[in-house]
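Help needed: design a sequence for this.
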């Protein structure tokens, strides 16, 4: 399952993710990471049955952890297949099949919201836990 880990400026210099991995023995597969002076944001996959353990460890070190369990919702009836979402999605959720029909693999979605803002026909939406 995908999770988002938010790290605030007061703990950004601490190796909390490495500590949590060592402490729990739970592996994280990081798919996106963004750090600047004021904050860090990491999207990672973790085994579902290990989520609570990892969440507890990271939270105890000051991080905020959310499940990303409501990926992008595509309303096929509203989609005009303009292709705008293809070019902006950072994780390649969207693709075209051999007949140039849009295909959506929501399992890759990290709920960044970029495609929602780009879609000219309101065919894309997210849940409220992103
Ligand atoms: S941006 Fe919206 S309308 Fe255009 S292809 Fe993607 S989902 Fe369809
Ligand atoms: S919300 Fe972000 S990751 Fe998810 S489909 Fe849209 S652009 Fe891709």
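Sure. Designed sequence:
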């Amino acid at each position: 399952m995908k999770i988002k880990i938010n790290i605030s400026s007061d703990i950004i210099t601490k190796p909390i993710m490495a500590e949590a991995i060592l402490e729990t023995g739970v592996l994280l597969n990081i798919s996106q990471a963004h750090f600047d002076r004021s904050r860090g944001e990491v999207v990672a996959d973790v085994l579902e049955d290990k989520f609570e353990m990892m969440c507890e460890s990271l939270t105890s070190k000051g991080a905020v952890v959310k499940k990303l369990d409501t990926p992008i919702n595509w309303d096929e009836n509203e989609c005009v297949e303009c292709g705008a979402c293809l070019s902006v999605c950072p994780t390649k959720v969207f693709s075209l099949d051999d007949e140039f029909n849009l295909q959506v693999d929501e399992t890759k979605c990290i709920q960044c919201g970029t495609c929602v803002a780009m879609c000219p026909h309101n065919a894309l939406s997210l849940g409220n836990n992103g």
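The CA atoms of residues 47 and 56 lie 14 Å apart.
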